[in-house]
Amino acid sequence: MKYGPDIALVASLIGEPARANMVLALMSGQALSAADLAREAGVTPPTATGHLAKLVSAGLLGVRKQGRHRYFEIAGPDVGQAVEALIAVAARAGHLRTRPGPKDEAMRHARSCYDHLAGRMAVDMFGHWMASGILCWRSGALHLTRKGRDFLGGRGIAFEALESGKRPLCRSCMDWSERRHHLAGTLGAEILEMAVAKGWAARERNMRTVSFSKRGEENFVRWYSRPG
Amino acid sequence: MKYGPDIALVASLIGEPARANMVLALMSGQALSAADLAREAGVTPPTATGHLAKLVSAGLLGVRKQGRHRYFEIAGPDVGQAVEALIAVAARAGHLRTRPGPKDEAMRHARSCYDHLAGRMAVDMFGHWMASGILCWRSGALHLTRKGRDFLGGRGIAFEALESGKRPLCRSCMDWSERRHHLAGTLGAEILEMAVAKGWAARERNMRTVSFSKRGEENFVRWYSRPG
DNA sequence: TTCATAGTTTGATCATAGCCGAATTATCGC
DNA sequence: GCGATAATTCGGCTATGATCAAACTATGAA
Q1: C-alpha closest to that of A14 among B13, B189, B12, B191
Q2: How far is residue B95's CA from residue A191's CA, in Å, rounded to a whole number?
Q3: Which chain B residues in 32-61 sit with Cβ < 7 A of strand D?
Q4: What single-letter DSSP state applies at residue B173?
């Protein structure tokens, strides 16, 4: 007779440094090959194979075979949320690791984190909105202020529809490359949708890296920073 | 040069079965002594001491010395969220552990979670109230609807007094034996008080298990499900 | 076919860390 | 003061699992 979820199994998988590095590398949403992940984790291919097999069979990663390559990716949003939650704990407690997350500059600049915008641009937007009183912290949770509601209303964001569900309107998500907060939740998702819909940004093939055109980036920055 | 939060450190702490059992036992919100946790984890006191020292020094647990006892508790909401996220992943992937949190059936059926009712009956009540529009999710937080206010008003719950303090009126609390939400917050506490005051239920010596009489359970179910 | 690259399997090594028994320190009740 | 109980420290045993080198399989390219 078995009862209760076995969190130890899941946590111990993430709790091994090599595997944690792999998972963090995949947190960009990009699918990576076994060799890429071996490099990220700092282990040899055989070792990586073993780790990846465990992660896949436990349901933390998914795999897609393509020719002689095998591309791995985070299995689902629940895994992403668990990793984000662990990041938050580690960050609060001041535990730092030696190796950074996404190395490549383009990816640091703009990428999506599941369904919302992450990377430097997202962090900048978050900072700007905090500074101008659109967002604020209230008892540990992120809140959209009255001013923020006016602000978004004037920009055509239907936030009423976004806060109907169980998922929070605003959540902060710790960005591991910038080590600062950015906006998640349904509002964060909506903003990424909008940027794509307006043609400012395009998702790459892998669906998770987001590239802004030069003009799109200017428009986006203007969009979120224009007063009133 | 160090970058990025070390999630492997945090995850590996939770990833050890004995420690995971301790953390799960503390997820009720109740502070437990070292000996209690040793029993929960199925290890001897010396082993428990070692684990607890690691958990405390990593910032996952807090400790309160009281006489010759040391009471441990989850250090903060971020830790709780991380554990809940891991529960969600483990539950989705179908990983079950052999040892349940609350071992005996009576305790799964009805017990108190710190100061509010937990277990199957609480989960049923929560589901019923969600389905009938007494409670709803709004931007990630639990809300008592207008209908819910009428409903409770008609049942003699003075919810105005309950929402005056710093503590929220409604909170959801994840039940690890049922893996579903139940009602916490001052309203959850009040309902347990009421059930005890009306003689429907009695707290056991250890304060954690709550036993309903057969008649009390019927009355309680009728109380929360009667329309109007 | 032949070579090269991606990835896996095998087998052996080795370090980490979980575990307990016994002895030790601290606090309560008497 | 003296026992009793809570908790810790110490020392040594043991098992788990991370690691890599080398050999092997599979796919793609020439």
Answers
A1: B12
A2: 35
A3: 33-35, 45-46, 48-50, 52-53
A4: E
Q: Is B127 helix (H, G, I), strand (E, B) or coil?
A: helix
Q: B21, B23, B28, B89: which to substitute to probe chain A, counting the most A Cβ within 10 Å? A: B89
The answer to whether A11 touches B18, Cβ cutoff 8 Å, is no
Q: Confirm if A103 and B24 have CB atoms less than 8 A apart.
A: no
Which pLDDT band holds residue B208 (cuts at 50, 70, 90)? low
Distance (Å, whole) CA B93 – CA A100? 29
What is the pLDDT averaged over residues A204-226? Answer: 79
**ipTM, 2 dp:** 0.68
The matching CATH number, chosen from 3.10.180.10, 1.10.10.10, 3.20.20.150, 3.40.50.300, for A7-93 is 1.10.10.10
For nucleic chain C, give residues with Cβ below 7 angstroms from it.
Answer: A 33-35, 45-46, 48-50, 52-53, 68-70; B 12, 16-18, 43-44, 46-47, 50-51, 54, 67-68
| Closest alpha carbon to B173 in B216, B125, B134, B220 | B125
Residue A211 — pLDDT band, cuts 50, 70, 90?
Answer: confident
> In which band, very low, low, confident or very high, does the pLDDT at B103 lie, cut at 50, 70 and 90?
very low
Instruction: Give the bases of strand C that a protein CB approaches within 7 Å.
Output: 5-11, 17-23, 26-28
Query: With the CA atoms of A187, A184, B61 and A98 taken in that order, what torsion angle do they form, in degrees rounded to the nearest 10?
Result: -170
| Residue B175: predicted pLDDT | 59
Asked if B36 and B29 touch (Cβ cutoff 8 Å), the reply is no
Which amino acid type is present at position A81? Q
Given phi > 0 = left and psi -120 to 50 = alpha, else beta, which region is B51?
alpha
What amino acid occupies position A206?
Answer: N
Q: Which of residues 90-149 of B touch A (CB under 8 A)?
A: 90-101, 137-141
Where are chain A's structural domains? 7-93, 105-225
